[in-house]
């Protein structure tokens, strides 16, 4: 089955990615929703999910020192390149990268690498369809692994329930969590604001995405914020042959909808119609 | 005194707060530690005085000594070194530079070379602000090393304001390590509150005193105030949502530089922090 | 000789996997005894470098020909370094079908990596 996977990313956060994804969901037929923003998942706030299953996610192994065997010789601390072992020979979990050098050099075998739960993956049911989201434990490394797990679960769910569309709220940034959000998708939407910061971020994320997706569309949110900002973005898109699919003017009612935990495109249908949302949805569904 | 500026989600106004605070705090050094997406330089417009590369090491195998025993490949937790039939493959980008392969090699066949993962730029900017920022190369796995070097560079400075990466990833943890106070910038919307809670948890775990700045106040609801009240979290300031402020941000202008009427917000924040830290 | 095929499940009737380094299983088919056995792909949970590690696993199991959906750059380097011949199973749906297509000479050999790092699929 050829599943239509669409991802919405933004480079930097706060541009309206989640708001856009939430606005698209009611217009898609039988979607599976995947929230890949594992640092700060927000879609569940709007969709009021019922969690049906939660699974611990093991990210990496970390060093655990057996106090009974440890002689405090300090060799592990000396060899650790990440400064993860303190003066009193205790492992600082957030610094440990799981390389296992300490385990190898410990002369008395007091160190063992143990599996670490770094987050949870949740399968839930929403009004619009099944949703998969995850939450990373604060301080953990945002590798692509947890994001890949969300993608994998969403794909498996879609195949099992014969759903044709997976809409992905991508990770912000430009690191491997973003890459894991976009691999194998059919369409990529980049949401940005018409600011100089936004242009700077668009350049970076575009460079990253170029190799992974042919079908890229730009959405400019709060487009009436700044004429200069808007021109800067439009010029860049023209130079790079990027199509601008949607320009959304700033609208306080959208924030109001979110605050009331309602879907913006449903609460403000007229506004969305005026900006050409229907055509955008058509492209998404293609 | 080292102050970090954080946020749970992006786009709440971290850079706005950090840059304008630096503008109002004479002698402060501003560090942009959001190395994946640094933005402060757009507002500070520094005259470049320094640039240095940040490196990570990767293993190089001397094939005259190597006997393809495979020990290094079996040891490496990242699959960055892979002895094959006639040579040893090294995948530099995934090497974490742990030094393990050299330690396990019984033939002394491994040494290290460096490669650039990003740069650190420094300079003096508008308002006489001393400014330093890191920039991670696109495609690199982690900016933690750059942030660590940034912290090292400013470790002896009197007053340091750190614009941290959003969220609670290891990069954020690295940037707030050892600070005296953290400002959490949030917006009064359900997303803002939800994401803020994770940063609060992280700061509580790290035992760092913190307060909240509500940005774009008036655009949303009161959930954030209820939450802060319930947890006894100090609200340092409310910066109201205003189209004027938004437009200045859009074109890369620091609001206090444009109009000193905004300075009182930041002077207030600074005053409260100084009181708390002393 | 032993042929390794990327699979979603176990056995010859299993559907083929979408990915090489993170396939769930590898079905190992011995062309002389005509027997097949399945091994779990322990590389699939690696944080990084799954492709390279997967090649090592295949080599350790005596595989000299691999049938795969695609090969990222690291996997390609490893395939060459371990002197394994890799072929794309194209539109084959099951392990059995992929083997049949290989034997009929219908499969194309991977000469360079077919996808970019992280398996970005170029859609043309």
Describe this structure in a few short sentences:
The complex is a heterotrimer of chains A (286), B (278) and C (124). By secondary structure, chain B is α/β, with parallel strands linked by helices.
- Please give the number of β-strands of chain B: 11
What's the total number of strands of chain C? Answer: 6
What quaternary form is this?
heterotrimer
How far apart, in Å, are the first and last alpha carbons of chain B?
A: 10 Å
Greatest interface (CB-CB under 8 A), with counts per chain = A-B, 59 and 54 residues
Helix proportion range of chain C? 10-25%
How much is the radius of gyration of chain C in Å?
A: 13 Å
Uncertain spans of chain B? none
Structural class of the helices, strands and pairings of chain B?
alpha/beta
How would a crystallographer describe the biggest sheet of chain B?
Answer: 9 strands, mixed
Q: Helical proportion of chain B?
A: 25-40%
What is the general shape of chain C?
Answer: globular
Distance between the terminal alpha carbons of chain C, to the nearest Å?
36 Å
Which range does the strand content of chain B fall in?
25-35%
Question: What would you say this structure looks like, in words?
Answer:
The complex is a heterotrimer of chains A (286), B (278) and C (124). Chain A is an alpha/beta fold and 286 residues long. In chain A, helix 5 (144-161) packs parallel to helix 6 and helix 7 (196-209) packs parallel to helix 8 (227-239). A nine-stranded mixed β-sheet of chain A has the order 3-4-5-2-6-1-7-8-9, sandwiched between helices. Helix content of chain A is 36%, strand content 26%. The longest helix of chain A has 18 residues, at 144-161. By secondary structure, chain B is an alpha/beta fold. Chain B is elongated. The model of chain B has no long low-confidence stretch (mean pLDDT 93). In chain C, 23% of the residues lie in helices and 23% in strands. In chain C, helix 1 runs parallel beside helix 2 (73-81). The longest helix of chain C is centred in the middle third of the chain and has 11 residues, at 50-60. Chain C starts with a strand and ends in a 15-residue tail after the last strand. Residues 119-124 of chain C have low confidence and may be disordered. The interface between A and B is large, with 59 and 54 residues.
């Amino acid at each position: 089955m050829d599943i239509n996977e669409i991802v919405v990313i933004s480079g930097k956060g706060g541009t309206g990615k989640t708001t856009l994804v939430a606005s698209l969901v009611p217009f898609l037929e039988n979607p599976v929703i995947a929230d890949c923003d594992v640092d700060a998942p927000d879609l569940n706030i709007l969709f009021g999910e019922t969690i049906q299953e939660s699974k611990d996610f093991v990210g990496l192994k970390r060093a655990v020192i057996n106090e009974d065997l440890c002689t405090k010789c300090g060799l592990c601390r000396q060899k650790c390149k990440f400064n993860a072992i303190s003066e009193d020979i205790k492992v600082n979990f957030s610094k440990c990268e799981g390389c296992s050098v300490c385990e190898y050099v410990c002369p008395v075998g007091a160190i063992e690498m143990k599996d670490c739960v770094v987050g949870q993956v949740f399968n839930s049911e929403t009004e619009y369809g099944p949703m998969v989201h995850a939450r990373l434990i604060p301080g953990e490394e945002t590798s692509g692994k947890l994001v890949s797990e969300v993608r994998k679960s969403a794909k498996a769910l879609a195949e099992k329930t014969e759903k044709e569309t997976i809409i992905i709220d991508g990770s912000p940034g430009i690191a491997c969590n973003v890459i894991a959000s976009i691999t194998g998708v059919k369409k990529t939407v980049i949401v940005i604001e018409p600011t100089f910061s936004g242009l700077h971020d668009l350049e970076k994320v575009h460079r990253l995405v170029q190799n992974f997706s042919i079908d890229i569309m730009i959405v400019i949110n709060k487009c009436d914020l700044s004429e200069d900002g808007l021109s800067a973005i439009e010029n860049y898109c023209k130079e790079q042959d990027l199509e601008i699919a949607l320009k959304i003017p700033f609208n306080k009612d959208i924030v109001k909808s979110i605050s009331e935990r309602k879907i913006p495109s449903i609460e403000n249908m007229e506004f969305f119609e005026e900006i050409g949302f229907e055509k955008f949805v058509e492209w998404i569904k293609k | 005194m080292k102050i970090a500026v954080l946020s749970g989600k992006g786009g709440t106004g971290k850079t706005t707060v950090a840059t304008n605070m630096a503008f109002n705090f004479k002698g402060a050094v501003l560090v942009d530690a959001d190395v994946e997406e640094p933005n402060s330089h757009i507002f500070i417009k520094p005259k470049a005085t320094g640039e240095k590369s940040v490196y990570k090491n990767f293993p190089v195998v001397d094939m005259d000594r190597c006997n393809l025993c495979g020990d290094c490949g079996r040891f490496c937790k990242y699959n960055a070194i892979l002895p094959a039939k006639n040579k040893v493959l090294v995948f530099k980008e995934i090497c974490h530079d742990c030094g393990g392969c050299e330690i396990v090699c019984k033939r002394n066949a491994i040494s290290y070379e460096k490669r650039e993962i990003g740069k650190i730029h420094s300079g003096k900017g508008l308002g006489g602000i001393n400014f330093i920022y890191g920039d991670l190369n696109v495609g690199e796995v982690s900016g933690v090393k750059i942030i660590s070097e940034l912290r090292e560079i400013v470790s002896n400075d009197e007053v340091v304001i750190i614009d941290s990466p959003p969220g609670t990833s290891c990069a954020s943890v690295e940037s707030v390590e050892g600070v005296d106070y953290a400002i959490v910038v949030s917006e009064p919307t359900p997303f803002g509150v939800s994401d803020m809670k994770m940063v609060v948890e992280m700061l509580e775990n790290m035992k760092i005193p913190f307060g909240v700045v509500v940005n774009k106040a008036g655009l949303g609801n009161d959930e954030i105030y209820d939450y802060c009240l319930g947890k006894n979290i100090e609200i340092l300031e409310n910066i109201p949502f205003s189209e004027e402020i938004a437009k200045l941000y859009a074109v890369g202008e620091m609001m206090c530089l444009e109009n000193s009427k905004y300075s009182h917000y930041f002077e207030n924040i600074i005053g409260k922090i100084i009181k708390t830290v002393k | 000789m032993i042929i390794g095929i990327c699979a979603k499940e176990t056995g010859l009737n299993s559907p083929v996997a979408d990915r090489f380094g993170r396939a769930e299983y590898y079905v190992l088919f011995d062309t002389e005894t005509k027997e097949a056995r399945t091994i779990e792909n322990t590389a699939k949970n690696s944080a990084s470098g799954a492709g390279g590690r997967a090649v090592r696993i295949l080599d350790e199991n005596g595989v000299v020909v691999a049938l795969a959906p695609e090969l990222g750059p690291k996997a390609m380097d490893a395939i060459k370094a371990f002197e394994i011949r890799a072929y794309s199973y194209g539109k084959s749906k099951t392990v059995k079908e992929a083997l049949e297509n290989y034997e009929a000479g219908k499969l194309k050999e991977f000469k360079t990596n077919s996808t970019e790092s992280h398996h970005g699929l170029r859609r043309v």
